[in-house]
Amino acid sequence: MPSLGATFGRGAATMALWDVANADCVFVMGSNMAENHPIAFRFVIEAQRKGATVIHADPRFTRTSALSGIHAPVRSGSDIAFLGGLIRYVIENDLWFREYAMNYTNISNIIEDGFQDTEELDGVFSGYDPDNGIYRQDTWQYKGKMVPPPLPDHQIATDPPELGRDFESMTQGPAERDPTLQHPNCVYQILKRHYARYTPEMVEAATGCPKETFLRVAETVTRNSGRERTTTICYALGWTQHTHGVQVIRAAALLQGLLGNMGRPGGGIMALRGHASIQGSTDIPTLFDTLPGYLPQPKLFRDHATLEGYLRSETPTTGWWANTPKYVISLLKAWYGDAATAENEYGYQHLPKLIGDASYEPSILNMVDEAIKGHFIMGQNPAVGAGNSLFVEEGLSKLEWLVVRDFAMTETADFWNNGQRVQRGTIRPDQIGTEVFFLPAAMPGEKEGTFTNTTRLVQWHDHVCDAPGDSRSDLWFIYHLGRRLKAMYADSQEPADQALKDLTWDYPLQGDRMEPSAEAVLKEINGYTTADRKQIAKFADLKDDGSTASGCWIYAGAFPTETHNATRSRIPDAPDATSGHHEWAFAWPANRRTLYNRASADPEGKPWSERKKMIWWDEEGGKWTGLDVPDFVANKRPDYQPDWSKGARGMDALSGSDPFIMTADGRCAIFATSGLKDGPLPTYYEPVESPVKNLFYGRQFNPTARIWRHEGNELHAPQDPRFPHVFTTYRLTEMHCAGISTRIMPHTAELQPEAFVEISPELAEEIGIRTLDWTVLSTLRGEIEVKALVTERLRPFKIGRKQVHLIGMPWVFGWKGYAHGAAANTLLAITGDANTGINVTKALTCNIRAGRLPEALRLVTET
Amino acid sequence: MSAADTHVSAADALAGLHADALARMDAALAGRPHNDGNAFTAATKALSAYREALIQAQREHPAQGDRDRLSKLSAVIAMVIAGHFPLGAVPWAELDKARGWFVDLQSALPGLEV
Lengths: 863, 114
What we know:
The complex is a heterodimer. Chain A is α/β, with parallel strands linked by helices. Chain A has 26 helices and 31 strands. In chain A, helix 5 runs antiparallel to helix 9, helix 9 crosses helix 10 and helix 16 packs across helix 18. Chain A is globular. Chain B is mainly α. In chain B, helix 3 packs antiparallel against helix 4.
């Protein structure tokens, strides 16, 4: 979540789920929360019972809308117009929480003279390089400063590059500010100009949401923000999966910063993750470009040839990230143990140096181009779940080998035998050379370990019973694969194999199946002292001299002593308690439940209000105290000021009233000086495929979007008359992600037995179909047939003078299991968000017609 | 056909694939400063085909330095992929270097003098 990271300092939900119940207004957008996060939604209902207003802004009227006080219909992909309208409403009506924002955000900071806004450049910012489709960020900086972003990539894109890693200017004094907010290049003035055109009329024209409804949302959110009241914003993949997804979330983050809704009870941004341990999979990443704990993966085209160069160029001089060397060296010690010494840079040279984008979408293209030979798939079913399903199958067919581990046979593991391309006659099984290994996996109750949920809560779960037959846990598989590889390379003298030889791989094994101890893994993740292998209690104990090891610094405290697994704890607070259930599992970092909670007190350290108190300064005790673990240096006085005369570094460079300790200046970034690839302020662009013109700027779509043109992955031009409708995809309560785990279960399958497409009565009349009639959906990527569900839950949007129809389809179906039907993702193109590369699934274009596909192209389902 | 003849024809085939891959790389480089995805795709495919042939040739006629040659070829392919899917600006200067490595790779192959 680079948006939350760039704005506040950490890429994670800022609050605990149960704290949503303390909100006075819950604004859900980009999520059908009641359907897809039903457990979390109970806290929304609890807030509602206590008097909160619930707002749902969404293209469809869903189960969430039905339980909300206000439903604002918003065309898929037009979210930034809506959120930009809210920002303008707040600024123009002077409804921002002035004392909060002036002290805790960068709203008064002065930006470099050379900065030019999208207002001046018709939809792009200064620094744009059209040849490469990237920005250089020199002109986005605070005047006279280079501000390292708090994201895993701490450098700033500049020309020449060395400018962007010189952060000494941050140690020389505070950034220039204008408390009068009159300077033309202060953030407030830039913001005001930038959003001036996001009027309620423009919001209606671009989103299709009636102006009156928009204004009702704006009035409700602002009325429920301030000293006495707070608003929570909840979002999910409906915001993420766009080419501008990060900027949608940024707009919400910016809004919450202006309204003072961060770090306070019932305030924050509830990032609802896609499924059970997605938060964990970014903390200890399956991402290609980060190391555990959001440390940067070394890169070839950076000053990363040595550990010294890497640490020098990736360590911000100010703020908490100045501790980066402690976390990097402790990580290397955890991975390479005794083989990691100061003399050999703690094994740093074992780390691969990135040279390009190795995320999943380019990898699919590289499979098609035969550059990739093998592929492991665990807990994923890309033949159904990834965008452009036919193209994915083509990539799989070019591999030499494919390993799939799952609970049941998936469409992906069986693509060579009965995939869509085989069914359609595009290819025969004997023409596919991929050797497929399908290995049965254990289910959650059949293994021990942790889930990290959507609010950073690391929760242990026990092994209940053994998995049947040859089914094994993922931990078992990875451990024994590693063990065998280490044995194979034990005698190798090749330098490239030394990393494998040096890897610590000494987890105790349990039982006949030789199951590795998940507790031992968690202990290593937590960290320990290397001399006597004593667990460390907190990340502040980590050192950069090799005396400590930690597999993921932010998890320090999860297993703080030899016998205390904090993630096992299940002691709730009393029902009427106001604290944060601190004995219920462990939340990173440091068991804090609300991030940035120093902001719950005013600059002097007093709660903004009695009703919304959380953390405050205890003058007598000389420390911060309250209802949560302070997200601040415990004994730093609120009136502390850095001594700039000697050059202030690390946390010494942040004052006692700078609550956002992970950012280089301790402030919430209303204006993101660096870290985001597509601009310092969220800007409205149409989706790459759209039936309408961008009404805001000449630039149609995000100029930095990741677009990969490839035969088989063709895109629709804007306003292509062959594909006049907006297409969006979503999930269902009864079906889990790509569906296989629920489609094979009769009791869930019977609740959603067959694929369907939702269309409005108006569109149904246009094309002459009724509910349960067959339809054919088409894009340049593929065609599918599916039965129609005609429903008023979908309504046409009036965009400018044009009527735009929305077509919605769950993406959970495939051709295996008891519940089946067309894979919606067959229609998608592989395009990515500028920052994350995540695939676009929420707003594309398509066509629809009544009828069926020719018999040879119809899906053959299996039960 | 004798073993020597087979070797010669395999070497010729390898040379042909090398020439094709080099031409595709040049086409991608010629697009500078524009990143022509289709040109990079063609280069990746051609380099991958060359890699397959090289692996096959090495299996049939193992020689000292095989692994090193394959590592160098992998580095060339990785660089072309980095050009196609860059993390920032396209690394044109590094791609030029990779082209040079690729030229050297073929000329240093043992057995081509047969």
